Amino acid sequence: MEAQNLLSGFFPNYKIPLTRTSKKPFSSSLPSNPSFHSLLQSHNCVSFKTHHSPCYKGSLKKIFFCVNASENAVLEEKDYKRPQVVKRKKLAVFVSGGGSNFKSIHDACFEGLVHGDIVVLVTNKPDCGGAEYAKNKEIPVVLFPRTKDATDGLSPGDLVAALRSLEVDFILLAGYLKLIPAELIRAYPQSILNIHPSLLPAFGGKGYYGMKVHKAVIASGARYSGPTIHFVDEHYDTGRILAQRVVPVLANDTAEELAARVLHEEHQLYVEVTAALCEERLIWREDGVPLIQNRENPNEYS
């Protein structure tokens, strides 16, 4: 308001906008009157900032910035990243059981916390809780893989074709117990995530799933456990780790009690990672380690 009053004396028709929209960057064209420079020489209080929506990315554009100065006021021309819309992502989720993580991600998409939509559910158990939930939400359900008992299941090649026809961007495994075929991994490089209920690489690999993981953690005497989200390769639980969350193992924990606390963290962590994925905030370090860019501070990573 002080800056507004000061400027009104020199430019009666000029006003500093006091509000910003949530979808476009705030910017203001500056008056070219020489008196404006004199004003800044005596008042070090005028600045102009921009706001970025999390679903926008930048492209470079030249604009003028007002720079505060106690002696000489200057107008500097700088490269400015003008937000551009990030395409809403299409997600495929794979489940074999109740699908609680699937439900959490679906709810987050519906509530606007994730800039994406689940367009198909893939399962090896058509009667599982996750499949029933998908049907109730009118999400298409695909059976995979094809077996002697599930002759209407898709082959790996047919599954890839189906996902491509739906324009799927990312695949999220949420309690899917089958090994992902090489054809799918080649078709979706660095685009398939899995969540595991331990701090990998500990207590991972073939045979480590569900309650077996938590029993093994307690039996080992480990003091900490927690969920891990990692990229999927052609083996169980060996892909690059993207995110983890630590859960303490209490002295008198049962496997069921530990599982409940880990699952609570899974629901939050998978939503956060999926949001970052859909907002294109994943960065690959030179050594191949994936990092998540902080939404509020793009210079920070986790």
Automatic annotation (TrEMBL):
**Which reaction does this chain catalyze?**
N(1)-(5-phospho-beta-D-ribosyl)glycinamide + (6R)-10-formyltetrahydrofolate = N(2)-formyl-N(1)-(5-phospho-beta-D-ribosyl)glycinamide + (6S)-5,6,7,8-tetrahydrofolate + H(+)
Q: Which pathway or pathways does this protein act in?
A: Purine metabolism; IMP biosynthesis via de novo pathway; N(2)-formyl-N(1)-(5-phospho-D-ribosyl)glycinamide from N(1)-(5-phospho-D-ribosyl)glycinamide (10-formyl THF route): step 1/1
Top-level taxon in the UniProt lineage: Eukaryota
InterPro entries assigned: Formyl_transf_N, Formyl_transf_N_sf, GART, GART_AS
Task: Give the keywords, sorted.
Answer: Chloroplast, Plastid, Purine biosynthesis, Transferase, Transit peptide
Q: What is its EC number?
A: 2.1.2.2
Q: Which Gene3D superfamilies match?
A: Formyl transferase, N-terminal domain
What family does the entry list? Answer: Belongs to the GART family.
| Protein name as annotated | Phosphoribosylglycinamide formyltransferase, chloroplastic
Origin species: Populus alba x Populus x berolinensis
The organism that produces this protein has a lineage beginning with:
Eukaryota, Viridiplantae, Streptophyta, Embryophyta, Tracheophyta
